[in-house]
Description:
Structural class: alpha/beta
Mean pLDDT: 94
Shape: elongated
Number of strands: 17
Distance between the termini: 15 Å
Number of helices: 8
Order of helices and strands: EHEHEEEEEHEHEHEHEEEEEEHEH
Strand content: 15-25%
Largest sheet: 7 strands, mixed
Amino acid sequence: MEQHDYDVVIVGGGAAGLSAALVLGRARRRVAVIDAGAPRNAPAAHMQGFLSRDGMPPADFLELGRGEVTGYGVEIIDGAVTEIEPGFLVRLANRETLTARRILLATGVSDDLPDIRGVRERWGRDLLHCPYCHGWEVRDQPLGVFATHPDAVMHALLVRQWSDDVIFFAHTADVSAPERVQLAARGIPVIDGEVAGLVVEDDQLTGVRIADGRIVTRTAVFIRPRNVPHPDGVLAGLGIDVSAEGFVAIDRDGRTSRPGVSAAGNIVDPRGSVIAAAGAATTAAMAINTDLVQEDVAGDVQRAS
């Protein structure tokens, strides 16, 4: 049987990648996790909704996870993957190469934020995206929702669950009459006019500035950014099937259209929370180990015959 450096190379060292590494390490597989060090939730002070880890800082969660997986012999390699060739040959940005029998993609996504003054600086603080992740922390506060995504109206209706003081900022979107009826029925006023920026005082969001000069008092704002899988160059090189938006298509066990390559986490579903990404990766890791066992058995049978 051809020898490889690793049974599995996992590309991405977030919740999905480390959860898969934990399963595979415990299965006594030779595993490397390649971590580019750019977790999606890095700007957030805390992560929520992960049972037993609710409120933990994301960096602490990853440090704890790294410690757990390395205890099972998993190798963590800090670096970025630039190319994966069939077989599999994994090339890193520092020109190092690794070989693996299987690949698990857990590289996540990046959030393409709107070009509004102050948005990038406040991202993950009081400029938020997920009400399930952050709604409790800003409950009963004056909240806003920017219409920067086709699903922005639904987003506003969700945010209304956490506060009865929610304003919908139309920005550059055309809000239809039926949508205005829905928003009005939930007591959500619509502010027409392009948003010029955020008003910040003493490192705290205090309002939203409209292009015509109006300032609307708000203490937190929600948006739906466009999600971009990364690194998309690696996906293109593998030639695996993706959706129209660029997210990886998988079967129920996390397998992609290319044999030997699996995927889990936000690179598959950008809506997935940390705990959902970890769970999906656990399922994918179990399937990978089963595939490897079957391959090992087939090789043993051939050699014995």
